[in-house]
Amino acid sequence: MSVWELIAKDPDRGASALIEDYGERLYATAFRICLNEQDAEDLVQRTLVRVVERISSYKGDSAFFTWMCAILVNFRRMDVRRKAANALVFDETPLDAPDERPDPGEAAAQDDEAAALRRAVSRLPEDLRLVVVMHYFNGLSVPEIARAVHAPEGTVYYRLHESRQRIRKFLSKDFAGRGIKPAEGS
Q1: Which residues lie below 8 Å from residue 121, measured CB to CB, with a gap of 6+?
Q2: Is residue 144 part of a domain?
Q3: Are residues 103 and 76 in the same domain?
Q4: What is the model's pTM?
């Protein structure tokens, strides 16, 4: 029996199975989007509650995780809109300025290529970071991402392309700053 069928049949047992089967993956997705633990935990909690509450609306047209990602993305959009509406100070940091925020757990791996890639992804604007996380970190296809973020597939392809270009630029600056010459063809 699938998790979503279990939730429909027995919400308490289903919720436990949902957390066990998808909790870590959903949290990893939320953290990569939000870039902080507190917001990610809140986002995951609200998403899991909504999944259990609205399980009857899941029709199986997409993968279950894709459907949950769509819920998570919608909550994130609402949060961003609410924060923007309540903002008193505008951030005038240029897009290409280095991100000064510390990233938990990466301090020990500063020289690691994976850490450099995570830093580059974290510097992307949220709309680009979102598709990168969903595609490369969660393995969702472009059509699945398009459904989850309510955007045309062409827009998702463009965002993935633009993300790759920016990541290459960030990485070349990062490696050049440490005296490392980029590999041929990168």
Answers
A1: 32, 129, 132, 133, 163, 167
A2: yes
A3: no
A4: 0.66
Q: Which two tokens stand for residue 174?
A: 């990062």
Which conformational region is residue 60 in: left (phi greater than 0), alpha (psi within -120 to 50 degrees), or beta? Answer: left
Cβ-contact 62, 108 below 8 angstroms: no
Q: What is d(CA 145, CA 130) in angstroms, rounded to the nearest whole number?
A: 9
Per-position DSSP letters for 69-82, written without gaps between them: HHHHHHHHHHHHHH
CATH of the domain at 141: 1.10.10.10
Which two tokens mark 54? 């609205």
Per-residue pLDDT of the chain (186 residues; tens, 9 = 90+): 899 999 999 999 999 999 999 999 999 999 999 888 999 999 999 999 999 999 999 988 889 999 999 999 999 988 887 876 665 444 455 555 555 555 544 444 444 677 788 888 999 999 999 999 999 888 899 999 999 899 999 999 999 999 999 999 988 887 676 665 555 555
Kindly provide the residue ranges of all beta strands, DSSP E only, lying in the chain, ordered along the sequence. Answer: none
Residue type, 133: V
Q: Sign of the CA dihedral 24, 128, 120, 97? A: negative
Give the orientation angle of helix 113-122 with respect to helix 153-177, to 10 degrees: 130
Of 63, 90, 117, the one marking the end of a domain is 90
Q: How many domains does the chain have?
A: 2
Q: Are 18 and 2 in contact (CB under 8 A)?
A: no
3-state secondary structure of 178: coil
